[in-house]
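Reader question, answered in our methods column.
A reader sent in the components of a multi-part assembly and asked whether the whole thing could be modeled at once rather than chain by chain. We filled in our standard form and ran it. Here is what they sent:
COMPLEX SIZE: two components
ENTRIES:
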Amino acid sequence: MKKKLFSTLVVLSLVSVMAYAAQKEEAKIAVASNSKDATSSISNKAGKCPYYLIFDGKGELIEVISNPYKDTQSGAGQQTADFLANKGVTLIIAGNFGDKMIGAMRSNGTDYSKLQGIVHDAVKTVLSPGDQILLKLDRNLNPESYESYRKLINIEPNGKKREYVLFTVKKGADKVAALFLLPASEKGRSTLRLDENMWLYIPNVGKPIRITSLQSVVGGVFNNSDILRLDYAAEYFVDQMEELNDKYVLHLKAKTKTVAYDKLKMWVDKDKVLPTKIECLTEASMLIKTIYFKETKDFGDKIVRPSVIETDSPLHKGYKSVMIFANIKKRAFEDEVFTLTSMPNLESLRQ
Amino acid sequence: MRLWAAWAILLTLSYGMALAEEEYSFDLSEIEKKPLRIGGYVEFNPVLFGLDTNSALYKLNSYDRDKENVREEYNFSALLDGSYKKGTTEFRAIVNTDLRKSYLGWSEETTLYEGYMSSRPSSTFNFNIGKKTLKWGTGYAWNPVAFLDRPKDPYDPDLAREGFVVVSADYIKSFDGPLKTFSFTPVLMPVYDHINDDFGKINHLNFAGKTYFLLYDTDIDLLFLTGGSKTSRYGMDFSRNITSNFEIHGELAFINDYEKRYINSDGTVFNNEYDATSYLLGLRYLTESDTTYIFEFFHDATGFAESEMTDYFSFIDQGYDTYLASGDDSLLTRASNLAEGSYNRRNPMRDYLYLRASQKEPFDILYFTPSLTGIFNVDDESFSIGPELLYTGIKNLELRLRTTFLVGDSYTEFGEKQNDYRAELRVRYYF
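And here is the structure of the entire assembly that came back:
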């Protein structure tokens, strides 16, 4: 009986591995590129990029296409999406996509991924199961473009609390802005992050000043990069992946030196593909802080994610900071919302 | 007994859960958006001045009073910040009232800091009309390119300031690639009788502008002012993070045909017209132990040379001696009139160093930030140094205790200011 059960499990595992392998084999990946070489940088213009490099499911470069729509005045994104779909492309990678191209890819059933950096690194990323999990986890945590209301609570060892309420907007992989609504002493302050650039605007004081990811505009255990967090996949790649019962354990490494934490160890719920715990580590694996994800909640519009994030740190013994999400809603924003000039006007985005 | 234990555990657990729920409650009605918003602060600010009765500026300001070694001053302020939004249009007003009890008696001053209408038809364009502060420049203590702003107080750069009546717009555009943001801010500034008449020569419509680029992760502004109320000037500034804890910034301003009035020790007034180039270079550095250093060097080409300041101070001394001998204060009145807008600027000379070191929450005392600020006059080697304690541990309340000591020889800037030291407490409550 035991032997039969074992054989069945082996067969089932083999079938699933073969199916995964076959799925990968069938994948055809098109990467928007600035030149014909796989070591080139990914183009930010999905519709009008000079070249598309086509890779198979094993990551081999199989074709270089000069984009026939690169000089088209209007509708380039839509035509490029249709052209690549006709060539059997299943996934398109570019630094950025226009709204019309996204619409065309959705109706063609083509997947897309916004990635920056070198072409062959991006292909490796999307073919690595760990990175795919990370990309999915990012999308499960929040839509690519959204607004949310958060309360931050800093709790001292004696139980004393300090609360802040923030209205946050995010767009794409690298744009986040947050406006302080409470307490009165912080009201009207706003913070902006464009990739690794961060600014703080204090009403009546002066123009926005540059701040750094390691500082904290609210004190407590959360620093600026925690409060203005980008997608994990935008800042980290998966160095190693383990499976532990119902969890994946992802060992993430920062893509650049400017990222706040050198390494992350992330426990991911296999079913929900959501993080349950993250350890933030230095290069030498010293623990800086631990982040716990709790109380999964349905925010509507298929957004089901932890509503409470707690953090503590061996560097701040006895202190705890908590982030509570009350509302997360998909919302599209113009890029210009995420500019220094617009920082004093974030309040006008609240509906 | 077991039943009791079970009940006790259950009760404890439910209490714990209730506490946990209460701990993490977040009611969105707390932050419901309302068209009318009012906020601001009230402030109490007692100040103790330790006077230097031998200094030139004490003689100039208090020659006709009995000598005092200390003076007290009590300031009560209220700043009201209100806005009303309808559709894409917003009306905003910031009003400040100062009530002061000083050696001169009680005085009250209410000033409209800002009062404007703003229209934002889209995220790429907005239009403003009214009294507004523009806040140009990247420097912390000084801003040579802030052509349309009132000067900052380098001892309190974060203070709210009064604006000017302007018509302005912002055009903003974002891009992918090395140039991430571009914006252009044209400004019209009328200077007529009763409108901005303290800005410069009246009966001129001035035109200014700022072009902003976020290029290769660097903030860059190009700025200009022309129109006649002041001589034409243009400049640039930048700011950039070198690493995740290190920022650099700078400003460069060219002022055409700057006219400087100065006095020699005999009291003869000279006018000197020249093109002035001022600049500022600064950095902000955060250490692993949470100490923030701000360091700036400022060269103000519109400032006075050391010999010019010495002449001015010696003219005051001469005027004071004349007053003591004959009761004639005409020379002191002349020195006082000449000081307006030039010699009495907060930092009237040419080369300054600014250093501020602040330590966040030392010895694990939460919400406590001690800091030390120094301003060093490179030309005459006088300086001011000020330790400060800031506590923000009580919700919406900010407590700041600060002392500033002024040190310098005779005929130096800080040596001839009327105070030897200044100690103040600031209690500010935000609502």
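What stands out: The helical segments of chain B are 2-23, 56-62, 306-326, 330-343. Residues 2-23 of chain B form the longest helix (22 residues).
Send us your own complexes using the same form.
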